[in-house]
Amino acid sequence: MQMGEGVEWALHSCLNLAWAEHQAVTARKLAAFYDLPPAYLNRQLQALARAGIVASTSGPRGGFRLARAPEEITLLDVVVAIEGGREAFRCQQIMRDGPGGRSDVDYRRHCLVSQAMSRAELAWRRELAAQTLADIRDSVEEKHPDAPRMARNRLAQPAR
Amino acid sequence: MQMGEGVEWALHSCLNLAWAEHQAVTARKLAAFYDLPPAYLNRQLQALARAGIVASTSGPRGGFRLARAPEEITLLDVVVAIEGGREAFRCQQIMRDGPGGRSDVDYRRHCLVSQAMSRAELAWRRELAAQTLADIRDSVEEKHPDAPRMARNRLAQPAR
DNA sequence: GACCTCATACTCGGATAGGGGCTGTCCGAGTGTTTATGG
DNA sequence: CCATAAACACTCGGACAGCCCCTATCCGAGTATGAGGTC
Questions:
Q1: B6-85+132-156 adopts what CATH topology?
Q2: Bridge-partner residues for B64, per DSSP?
C-alpha cells in the first residue's frame, strides 16, 4: 500500500500557491521550484482543479491559483483529489461465499473485520481533515520567517 | 492508494485459525472456506509465517496454526506482514532541490508536510494496533454464538 | 493619438506510451503415513 | 504377531507469467498579449 508521490508534490505546490497569494503561477514555475517533471505536475494540478481546490487560467499570464482560502483547504481534500476517495481497505465481502453467508447482507457494513479496518481508516482521515493548509503555512513561517519571501522570489523568476 | 486484497483474506483466515485452536489447517481448506484461489492464499499465509504470526508444518496432517495467542496478535501485525512495513506516504525530500534546501537535513523528519502526513498515518497504525484478533473473535461470537462451531465444522470437512 | 485587427506565443487539458508491483499459477523439496515384507 | 523399510501421498515453499495502475510525455484547443495598420 503506497501513496502516489503526486500527493507530496501537490501539497508543496498548494503551499507555494498560498504564498503566491492571488497571483496565478504556471505549472512550469511550480515544477521548477523543486525540479520536478513539469508535464506530470501539470497532471496533478489538473486533478486539484477538478476537485475545486485550485482554479486554472489558460493563455499568457495564466496558471493556477488557490480557489479557496488556505483555511478552507484540508490535507484530506488534497489527498482525496489526487488519490481518489475510495477507501484503502476495500471489503470484497468474501463472507458471502462462506458458511452462513447471506447474499442480501452488505458485509461492507456488517463484517466486523471490515468495520475494524474502516475505523482505523477513519482515524487517519480525521487526522488529515483536522489540519488545513493554513496550519502548515503558519507552522513553516514560524520556523522560517523568510520562507514566504523566498518562495515569492523564486516564483517571480522566469522558469529557466 | 489501495491495500492489497490479501490483507482481507489473511485477517479472515487468522480468525478461522483462532477458532481451529491448535489444529493445523491446510491452505486448501482455508481457501475453500471462502472460495479463494488456494495457491495465492498460500502465498499470503507464507508471509504470515515469515512474520511469526502463524506456524507452518509440511507433509500430511500439516498446515498452518496460530503461532501466538489471539490476544497477542494485533491487526497491525497482520497488515504489516502482508503489505510490508514501509509508510504509505514516503517523503521524497523534494525540498532539497528547492530554494534554501540543505543536503545535510533529513526532511523526512523536519519537513512539516511530511510530519503532518506521518501524524495521520500514526493515528491509523495506533488504531490498528489497539485491536487484537481476540477482540474481533469475541465480537463475532457475541453476535453469532454458533460461529465457532460452524467454522470448525467447515474446516473439519475435507476440502472437496 | 486612439482604435481595431491580426498574428503570435503561451497556457492548460486530455490523449498516448512505458514500467513496477499486485494478482494468479505452477512445480519441486520435505515429511508423516501407509503398506508390504521378512523374521 | 512385530519390526523394518520402502513407496507413497500430501503439504508448504519458492520460482515463474499476466494484468492493472502509477509514472512520464507529447501535442492540440483556447486565450490574453502585443504589434501593426488605419482613421
A1: Arc Repressor Mutant, subunit A (1.10.10)
A2: B25, B56
